[in-house]
Amino acid sequence: MTHPRNFRILHLFLTSGCNLGCSYCFQYHQRPVSMDWATLRAAIDLSFTTDHPTIELAFTGGEPLLEFDLLCRGVRYATEKVPAEKELKLTLMTNGLLLREDVVAFCERHGIDTRLSFDGLPPAQETRAAGTFRRLDRFLGGLRRVHPIFFRDRLRVSITLPPAGVPVLADSVAYFLGHEVAEIAIAPTLDAPGGWSCDRVPVLEEAFNRIFALSLSHLREKCSVPVLFLRKPEWSRLQTTPPVVGGRKAGAAGSSEEPRHDRGSHAPRPMCGVLSGESLTVDTDGQVHACLLFARANRQAQAPFLQDEIAGLGIASVSDPDFQRRYHEFIEAHLEPPTFSGKQNKYSSLGRCRECRFYNSCVLCPVSIGLIPENRDPNRVPDFYCAFNMISLRYRELFPPQPRRVALAGRPVRQSTA
């Protein structure tokens, strides 16, 4: 477990309300509740007490743009009050349907990084929320034309991948590359409600094989890698060992040397960063949680053992005058609930974590364990989630390092990582 000097990301849960009802959404369908100004102001003030030199305020929900006026007030307050010695980063997570011209102009003016949830081509996006592909397709084209700098420097597209989306995943990535999207994040759904079994692993393999080839061509042609899970910090040479798919090598010929395993020590390792305390979430009622998924509006029906563990990971109210002490007590508590620790004991139908070559580099959300229907085993990992991690990490290992992006005309250029 790491011990940061203090938190660096504060997720602000502006509202549990949403203008969509996505098929894989992990939120309860409950009465929408929103954060009030006093709570948001207290949360922003709290962020300035961190020892970390950079603080990121991430506006989320629900759909945070349903509370656009509150968001604007918070952004203005934060930019006015941020201490001179701190760097302030602002992030918006949105489904994009409320990104009107005035909203985009505000985000551009205040340097707000925008994470657009958009799953790609109609077979994927329309399954998520019917009638949304055409609107988001028009939005991307208009944004690129009217706000080219914002489009290039501030926009990230986030694909959420359920099993049903696997057959069109590579085509969706090609679609976003064709739109010249600068950053494309891909994450699996936390649960896989039907449509997945381990005999479909070759289909997932083939999707990543195509993404690998598309990204390699993009790197050679444009010297950039928009697909985040493939990014590496430095570029040594434009050459790679092609992955093996279905018993044959994919892509151009290269060295047949087997990549090194990264298992290393099998000492107990955290499943994720939740117990590090680097990222916190302020719920609509002002309660601070160790993870965005622990917010009250995000708690889908889960296994009882996970609900009990989550209950023990709350911190305090955002307005608690003794918050910093309680925060550091949380960090120093060395909490090790079974689902959030003992990574070496975790397993899926694809094997045991301690025997996996990516044991050290794999990050697995413990909440996914509690979403397996009727699961009572805190060590049981969802098969789809495991397959996604194993395959994506292997392709990342095989992808060539990338050149650093150089600042132009004195303007710093973002260097994001997956």
From TrEMBL:
This is Radical SAM protein. Belongs to the radical SAM superfamily. Anaerobic sulfatase-maturating enzyme family. Residues 240-269 are annotated as: Disordered. It comes from Eiseniibacteriota bacterium. It comes from the Bacteria. The keyword Metal-binding applies. Keywords: Iron, Iron-sulfur, Metal-binding, S-adenosyl-L-methionine. Residues 14-121 form the Radical SAM core domain. The keyword ATP-binding does not apply. Pfam families: Radical_SAM.
